[in-house]
Amino acid sequence: MKNALRVLVLLVLILGFGSSVWAAEGVYFSKQVYKLGMNHRDVQVIQEALKKDGVFKNSRMTTYFGPITQRAVKDFQKKYGLKADGVVGKATIAKMEFLGLFENRAEAISRGSRRVRGEYLDWWSQVSKMIQRNDVLKIEDVETGKTFRVMVTAGTNHADVEPLTKEDTSVIKDIWGGFRWDRRPVLVYAGDRVIAGSMTAMPHAGVDGLPGGQTVSNRSGGYGRGYNFDFVKDNGMDGHIDLHFKNSLRHKDDKQDPKHQQAVQKAAGIR
Q1: Residue closest to 158 by CA, chosen among 125, 202, 124, 191
Q2: Dihedrals φ, ψ of 261, to 5°?
Q3: What confidence score (pLDDT) does residue 112 get?
Q4: Cα gap 189→116, rounded to integer Å
Q5: For the CA atoms of 152, 245, 189, 191, what is the dihedral angle to 10 degrees?
Q6: Whole-structure pTM over 0.85, yes or no?
Q7: CA dist., res. 180 & res. 60, Å (int)
Q8: If you count DSSP H runs as helices and E runs as strands, how many of each does the chain have, helices first?
Protein backbone atom coordinates (compact mmCIF):
# COMPACT_ATOMS: atom_id res chain seq x y z
CA MET A 1 0.00 0.00 0.00
CA LYS A 2 2.81 2.36 0.93
CA ASN A 3 4.64 1.65 -2.34
CA ALA A 4 1.46 2.29 -4.30
CA LEU A 5 1.01 5.61 -2.53
CA ARG A 6 4.60 6.55 -3.29
CA VAL A 7 4.14 5.78 -6.97
CA LEU A 8 0.95 7.88 -7.00
CA VAL A 9 2.74 10.82 -5.40
CA LEU A 10 5.57 10.56 -7.92
CA LEU A 11 3.04 10.61 -10.75
CA VAL A 12 1.53 13.76 -9.27
CA LEU A 13 4.98 15.31 -9.17
CA ILE A 14 5.73 14.40 -12.76
CA LEU A 15 2.35 15.19 -14.29
CA GLY A 16 1.14 18.00 -12.10
CA PHE A 17 3.97 20.49 -12.26
CA GLY A 18 1.94 22.93 -14.31
CA SER A 19 0.05 23.95 -11.16
CA SER A 20 1.42 26.42 -8.63
CA VAL A 21 1.07 24.04 -5.65
CA TRP A 22 2.29 20.44 -5.60
CA ALA A 23 2.81 17.73 -3.01
CA ALA A 24 5.32 15.14 -1.88
CA GLU A 25 4.65 12.73 1.00
CA GLY A 26 2.03 15.05 2.54
CA VAL A 27 4.17 18.19 2.16
CA TYR A 28 2.75 20.85 -0.14
CA PHE A 29 5.14 23.05 -2.11
CA SER A 30 3.93 26.40 -3.43
CA LYS A 31 6.92 27.10 -5.71
CA GLN A 32 8.22 25.13 -8.67
CA VAL A 33 11.85 26.17 -8.17
CA TYR A 34 13.85 27.05 -5.05
CA LYS A 35 17.25 28.69 -5.47
CA LEU A 36 19.90 30.95 -3.96
CA GLY A 37 18.55 34.13 -2.37
CA MET A 38 14.98 32.94 -1.84
CA ASN A 39 13.26 33.31 1.52
CA HIS A 40 10.31 30.94 1.86
CA ARG A 41 8.81 28.61 4.44
CA ASP A 42 9.30 25.64 2.07
CA VAL A 43 13.10 26.10 2.21
CA GLN A 44 13.13 24.87 5.80
CA VAL A 45 11.45 21.62 4.72
CA ILE A 46 14.08 21.17 2.00
CA GLN A 47 16.87 21.81 4.53
CA GLU A 48 15.39 19.20 6.88
CA ALA A 49 15.37 16.66 4.04
CA LEU A 50 18.99 17.51 3.18
CA LYS A 51 19.96 17.12 6.83
CA LYS A 52 18.33 13.69 6.98
CA ASP A 53 20.47 12.73 4.00
CA GLY A 54 23.58 14.04 5.75
CA VAL A 55 24.62 16.75 3.29
CA PHE A 56 23.25 19.77 5.20
CA LYS A 57 25.77 20.51 7.96
CA ASN A 58 24.25 23.57 9.64
CA SER A 59 22.84 22.92 13.09
CA ARG A 60 19.76 25.11 12.59
CA MET A 61 17.19 25.13 9.81
CA THR A 62 15.93 28.46 8.45
CA THR A 63 13.64 29.70 5.69
CA TYR A 64 16.50 31.33 3.77
CA PHE A 65 18.15 29.65 0.77
CA GLY A 66 21.72 30.83 1.27
CA PRO A 67 25.17 29.60 0.19
CA ILE A 68 25.22 26.77 2.76
CA THR A 69 21.91 25.43 1.47
CA GLN A 70 23.04 25.79 -2.14
CA ARG A 71 26.22 23.81 -1.41
CA ALA A 72 24.20 21.09 0.35
CA VAL A 73 21.83 20.87 -2.63
CA LYS A 74 24.76 20.51 -5.03
CA ASP A 75 26.26 17.76 -2.85
CA PHE A 76 22.90 15.98 -2.79
CA GLN A 77 22.54 16.26 -6.56
CA LYS A 78 26.06 14.96 -7.21
CA LYS A 79 25.47 12.10 -4.79
CA TYR A 80 22.44 10.87 -6.73
CA GLY A 81 23.50 11.65 -10.28
CA LEU A 82 21.31 14.72 -10.75
CA LYS A 83 22.29 17.94 -12.50
CA ALA A 84 24.40 19.67 -9.82
CA ASP A 85 23.20 23.25 -10.33
CA GLY A 86 22.22 23.96 -6.71
CA VAL A 87 18.61 24.64 -7.73
CA VAL A 88 15.80 22.60 -6.19
CA GLY A 89 13.25 21.68 -8.85
CA LYS A 90 11.01 18.74 -9.63
CA ALA A 91 13.83 16.22 -10.16
CA THR A 92 15.51 17.02 -6.84
CA ILE A 93 12.22 17.01 -4.92
CA ALA A 94 11.22 13.73 -6.54
CA LYS A 95 14.52 12.13 -5.50
CA MET A 96 14.07 13.37 -1.92
CA GLU A 97 10.56 11.94 -1.85
CA PHE A 98 11.73 8.60 -3.32
CA LEU A 99 14.38 8.35 -0.59
CA GLY A 100 11.73 8.92 2.08
CA LEU A 101 13.26 12.19 3.28
CA PHE A 102 9.83 13.76 3.74
CA GLU A 103 8.37 10.95 5.83
CA ASN A 104 7.01 12.05 9.21
CA ARG A 105 6.88 15.60 7.87
CA ALA A 106 3.26 15.56 6.69
CA GLU A 107 2.20 19.16 7.17
CA ALA A 108 0.71 21.58 4.70
CA ILE A 109 2.95 24.56 4.06
CA SER A 110 2.21 27.69 2.11
CA ARG A 111 3.48 31.24 1.86
CA GLY A 112 2.63 33.14 5.01
CA SER A 113 1.51 30.07 6.97
CA ARG A 114 3.94 30.87 9.79
CA ARG A 115 5.89 33.99 10.62
CA VAL A 116 9.65 33.49 10.69
CA ARG A 117 11.30 34.05 14.06
CA GLY A 118 14.86 35.21 14.41
CA GLU A 119 17.52 33.49 16.49
CA TYR A 120 17.94 35.21 19.85
CA LEU A 121 21.73 35.54 19.69
CA ASP A 122 24.02 37.54 21.97
CA TRP A 123 25.76 40.48 20.31
CA TRP A 124 29.06 40.09 22.16
CA SER A 125 29.68 36.35 22.02
CA GLN A 126 27.91 35.49 18.77
CA VAL A 127 26.61 38.17 16.40
CA SER A 128 29.66 40.45 16.48
CA LYS A 129 31.73 37.45 15.37
CA MET A 130 29.28 36.48 12.62
CA ILE A 131 28.91 39.82 10.87
CA GLN A 132 31.87 42.00 9.98
CA ARG A 133 32.43 45.45 8.58
CA ASN A 134 31.55 45.67 4.85
CA ASP A 135 29.17 42.72 5.09
CA VAL A 136 25.91 43.20 3.18
CA LEU A 137 22.80 42.08 5.06
CA LYS A 138 19.20 41.68 4.08
CA ILE A 139 16.81 43.18 6.64
CA GLU A 140 13.14 42.24 6.95
CA ASP A 141 10.75 44.39 8.95
CA VAL A 142 8.78 41.96 11.12
CA GLU A 143 5.48 43.82 11.05
CA THR A 144 5.27 44.61 7.32
CA GLY A 145 7.45 41.90 5.78
CA LYS A 146 9.17 44.51 3.61
CA THR A 147 12.89 44.00 2.97
CA PHE A 148 15.91 46.13 2.15
CA ARG A 149 19.70 45.81 2.07
CA VAL A 150 22.31 47.46 4.25
CA MET A 151 26.09 47.39 4.62
CA VAL A 152 27.81 47.18 8.00
CA THR A 153 30.12 50.19 8.08
CA ALA A 154 30.90 50.80 11.77
CA GLY A 155 29.97 49.91 15.32
CA THR A 156 31.37 48.23 18.41
CA ASN A 157 28.54 48.26 20.99
CA HIS A 158 26.09 47.47 18.18
CA ALA A 159 26.16 47.45 14.39
CA ASP A 160 26.04 50.73 12.48
CA VAL A 161 24.69 50.19 8.97
CA GLU A 162 23.90 52.13 5.80
CA PRO A 163 21.39 51.30 3.04
CA LEU A 164 23.07 50.24 -0.20
CA THR A 165 21.00 52.32 -2.60
CA LYS A 166 18.41 55.08 -2.79
CA GLU A 167 15.83 52.36 -3.39
CA ASP A 168 16.75 50.70 -0.08
CA THR A 169 16.50 54.06 1.68
CA SER A 170 13.08 54.57 0.11
CA VAL A 171 11.89 51.25 1.54
CA ILE A 172 13.20 52.24 4.98
CA LYS A 173 11.36 55.57 4.87
CA ASP A 174 8.21 53.81 3.73
CA ILE A 175 8.36 51.38 6.67
CA TRP A 176 9.12 54.00 9.33
CA GLY A 177 7.12 56.84 7.77
CA GLY A 178 10.26 58.90 7.21
CA PHE A 179 13.49 59.16 9.16
CA ARG A 180 12.57 58.31 12.77
CA TRP A 181 14.14 57.04 16.00
CA ASP A 182 11.35 54.48 16.52
CA ARG A 183 12.66 51.01 17.38
CA ARG A 184 11.23 48.28 15.17
CA PRO A 185 11.76 44.50 15.37
CA VAL A 186 13.62 43.17 12.32
CA LEU A 187 15.00 39.92 10.98
CA VAL A 188 18.64 40.05 9.90
CA TYR A 189 19.64 37.58 7.16
CA ALA A 190 23.34 36.79 7.45
CA GLY A 191 24.41 33.82 5.33
CA ASP A 192 22.06 30.98 6.27
CA ARG A 193 21.21 32.52 9.65
CA VAL A 194 18.17 34.61 10.51
CA ILE A 195 18.90 36.73 13.59
CA ALA A 196 16.50 38.73 15.75
CA GLY A 197 17.32 42.43 15.75
CA SER A 198 16.00 45.93 16.33
CA MET A 199 16.56 48.95 14.11
CA THR A 200 15.96 52.67 14.03
CA ALA A 201 15.68 54.79 10.89
CA MET A 202 17.33 58.05 11.94
CA PRO A 203 20.58 58.71 10.02
CA HIS A 204 23.25 60.41 12.08
CA ALA A 205 26.93 61.31 12.35
CA GLY A 206 27.60 61.65 8.62
CA VAL A 207 27.54 63.72 5.43
CA ASP A 208 26.85 61.81 2.21
CA GLY A 209 28.49 64.40 -0.03
CA LEU A 210 31.90 64.28 1.70
CA PRO A 211 34.46 61.46 2.00
CA GLY A 212 33.86 58.92 4.74
CA GLY A 213 36.41 58.70 7.52
CA GLN A 214 37.44 62.36 7.37
CA THR A 215 36.70 65.14 9.84
CA VAL A 216 33.73 67.16 8.58
CA SER A 217 31.26 69.74 9.87
CA ASN A 218 27.46 69.67 10.09
CA ARG A 219 27.09 65.94 10.47
CA SER A 220 23.52 64.61 10.39
CA GLY A 221 21.44 64.19 13.53
CA GLY A 222 22.92 67.29 15.13
CA TYR A 223 26.32 65.69 15.63
CA GLY A 224 28.26 68.76 14.52
CA ARG A 225 31.93 68.49 13.62
CA GLY A 226 33.70 65.13 13.78
CA TYR A 227 34.45 61.83 12.08
CA ASN A 228 32.30 61.31 8.98
CA PHE A 229 30.43 58.02 9.45
CA ASP A 230 29.15 57.91 5.87
CA PHE A 231 30.84 55.37 3.61
CA VAL A 232 28.06 54.29 1.24
CA LYS A 233 27.58 57.20 -1.15
CA ASP A 234 24.61 58.39 -3.19
CA ASN A 235 22.14 56.31 -1.20
CA GLY A 236 19.83 59.12 -0.13
CA MET A 237 21.01 59.11 3.49
CA ASP A 238 23.56 61.12 5.47
CA GLY A 239 25.37 58.92 7.98
CA HIS A 240 24.38 55.56 9.40
CA ILE A 241 21.54 53.99 11.38
CA ASP A 242 21.56 51.71 14.41
CA LEU A 243 21.07 47.94 14.35
CA HIS A 244 20.84 46.30 17.77
CA PHE A 245 20.83 42.69 18.96
CA LYS A 246 20.47 40.83 22.25
CA ASN A 247 22.56 42.58 24.96
CA SER A 248 24.01 45.20 22.60
CA LEU A 249 24.68 48.66 24.05
CA ARG A 250 24.27 52.31 23.12
CA HIS A 251 27.41 54.16 22.10
CA LYS A 252 26.58 57.27 24.11
CA ASP A 253 26.60 55.66 27.56
CA ASP A 254 27.52 51.96 27.15
CA LYS A 255 24.09 50.92 28.45
CA GLN A 256 21.38 48.73 27.03
CA ASP A 257 18.44 50.44 25.38
CA PRO A 258 15.28 48.84 26.86
CA LYS A 259 13.14 49.61 23.78
CA HIS A 260 15.71 48.01 21.48
CA GLN A 261 15.89 44.92 23.69
CA GLN A 262 12.09 44.61 23.71
CA ALA A 263 12.04 44.84 19.91
CA VAL A 264 14.76 42.16 19.62
CA GLN A 265 12.70 39.86 21.83
CA LYS A 266 9.66 40.48 19.64
CA ALA A 267 11.65 39.56 16.54
CA ALA A 268 12.69 36.35 18.32
CA GLY A 269 9.07 35.52 19.22
CA ILE A 270 9.74 35.87 22.95
CA ARG A 271 7.35 38.79 23.52
Answers
A1: 124
A2: -65, -35
A3: 40
A4: 11
A5: 80
A6: no
A7: 34
A8: 7, 10
